[in-house]
Q: What sequence folds into this?
C-alpha cells in the first residue's frame, strides 16, 4: 500500500478528511465543521471536495446514499489502514522532534 504520500502536496486536507471520517460517516459540511474544531481553520469547499475526490479515487473513502440532499462519505478498510500508517509515521516524526527540542 502506498499510503497518503501518493496524494502529494494535498495530503494534509486528505489526512484531515480521513481523521474526520474515522469518527463515522459525515457529509461535506459536517466534515468542514469537524475539521474546523480540530484545527481552528475551516477548509474551503474546493479544498475539501478536491481531497474527497482524490480519496475516493484511491479507494480510501466511499460515498453513501444521499440523505436530505447531502451525500455522506465513510472510511473504507483501505482508508482506515492508510490513516493508521500515516498517523504512526507522524507519531515518530513528532516524538523525534519533541525529543530533539528538549535536548537543544
A:
Amino acid at each position: 500500500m502506498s499510503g497518503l504520500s501518493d496524494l502529494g502536496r494535498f495530503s494534509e486536507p486528505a489526512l484531515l478528511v480521513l481523521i474526520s471520517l474515522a469518527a463515522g460517516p459525515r457529509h461535506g459540511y459536517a466534515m468542514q465543521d469537524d475539521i474546523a474544531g480540530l484545527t481552528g481553520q475551516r477548509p474551503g469547499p474546493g479544498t475539501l471536495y478536491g481531497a474527497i475526490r482524490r480519496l475516493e479515487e484511491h479507494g480510501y473513502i466511499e460515498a453513501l446514499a444521499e440523505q436530505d440532499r447531502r451525500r455522506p462519505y465513510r472510511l473504507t478498510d483501505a482508508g482506515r489502514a492508510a490513516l493508521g500508517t500515516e498517523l504512526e509515521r507522524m507519531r515518530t516524526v513528532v516524538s523525534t522532534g519533541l525529543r530533539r527540542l528538549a535536548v537543544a
Notes: Helices lie at 11-21, 28-39, 45-57, 77-103. The chain has a mean pLDDT of 91. The two ends are 36 Å apart (CA to CA). The beta strands are 26-27, 61-63, 72-75.
